[in-house]
Amino acid sequence: MAQASSSDIPKGWNQRSTTFKGPIKPVQKPYVFAGLLGIIALYIATVSVAGFVQGFLFLIGLGLGMALLYARFGFTSAFRRLVSVGNVQGLQAHMLMLAAATTLFAIIFATGFSFTGAEPTGFVSPVGVSVLVGAFMFGIGMQLGSGCASGTLYSVGGGSSSMILTLFFFIVGSVAGAYHISFWEGTPHMEPFSLAESTNFGYFGGWAVQMALFAAIYFGTVLFAKWKNPPQMKPLSTTSGFKKILRGSWPLFSAAIVLAVLNALVLAVRGTPWGITSAFALWGGKFLNFIGVDVASWDYFTGANAEALSSSVLADSTSVLNFGIILGAFVSAALQGTFNPKRVKPGVAGASIIGGLLMGYGARLAYGCNIGAYFGGIASFSLHGWVWAVMAILGTGLALFIRPLFGLANPKPKDSLC
């Protein structure tokens, strides 16, 4: 990342907002038209194959893709800015998102609320060697691949050429992790631990504990930022009025709330929180199965995974959500006029390949990614979500020394913006 000069700082920007009123590019109408046709076609196909509930999940996926793209909501960049220069804006947005999601999840779990009759169940997984290793690998991988699970999907939809490589090898890594899952599940681990159900706290008590943790982290970041005085995030250009919704960029905190609400909506519709990477293992498994590899004999492809392997990909709710994210981001980028695929440099390509492999493999070991383990896990009161976050940040720290080997720059304390 080249050092920014004072001329890079937008005039009139108050340096606290993640957006500023500035010029926006013309709408790319052909892309918008193509994206809308794709959305209509895939919605009709999804409803025809799996019903209206699945179609509704596809629409939620569109909303997730829009929120991610319009705010450029990052997990990878948030961790990188935090570790490299001490910028806490991304992590603060995470705390707001997690607080809102935890509140909604607690209500849903405590009341058993569901739009479809599906019993709401959180992502609560064991903590052990596999989570420690997998989350650490994921932390390295997302910094090399320049995107996490959600970042990979919305960046592909948004026109990032290198992220296509990252996604492909993310799938390859997921399949490799699925193949080895029986070994990793045999490594030392503790039983799944929920702050709400594995204690006497209950959902209200668990909610109170997590709110205290979020508040402590948030105000800790305020003090940390005063000490480090880091460069601020480069703001995104936006407009005013209702045009801001579809044409301009969204403030980071607004997107955090939208993502929390949509994740809770996923929980209330299908009975489990938002996830991403299980679909990657499924897509890779289906391909191997098609060319004659007996993936059905793997321990991973048993039970519900075996049923998904033999069914249409449109019957898999995680896959449908992923398709929605990509298309939602694509149309959003076209509305902003920013869809512009570029040639991939060799160093970036190499980092994307390695990063994708590490993320795919790590996500299987760690029972999820930045969405399923970190976002969904913490909102589900699972200890493994907190452990995942710590290990991914440690992995980020190591990755900062590796990135320059591939020509990838890191933010620097003397940058005006990061």
Mean pLDDT: 96
Q: Could you tell me the number of beta strands?
A: 2
Approximate shape: globular
Helix residue percentage: 55-70%
Instruction: Please summarize the sheet with the most strands.
Output: 2 strands, parallel
So how many helices? 17
Strand content: under 5%
Terminal-residue CA separation: 8 Å
Radius of gyration: 20 Å
Order of helices and strands: EHHHHHHHHHEHHHHHHHH
Question: Could you list the spans in which at least 5 consecutive residues all have pLDDT below 50?
Answer: 1-6
The quaternary state of the protein chains shown equals: single chain
Protein name: Membrane protein YedE/YeeE
Keywords: Cell inner membrane, Cell membrane, Membrane, Transmembrane, Transmembrane helix, Transport
Subcellular location: Cell inner membrane
Membrane topology: Multi-pass membrane protein
Could you walk me through the main structural features you see in this protein, from its secondary elements to its overall organization?
There is one protein chain. By secondary structure, the chain is mainly α. The chain is built from 17 helices and two strands. It has a two-stranded parallel ribbon with strand order 1-2. It is globular and about 60 Å long. Mean pLDDT is 96; it is low at 1-6. It is a multi-pass membrane protein. Pfam families: Sulf_transp. This is Membrane protein YedE/YeeE. It comes from Alkalicoccobacillus murimartini.
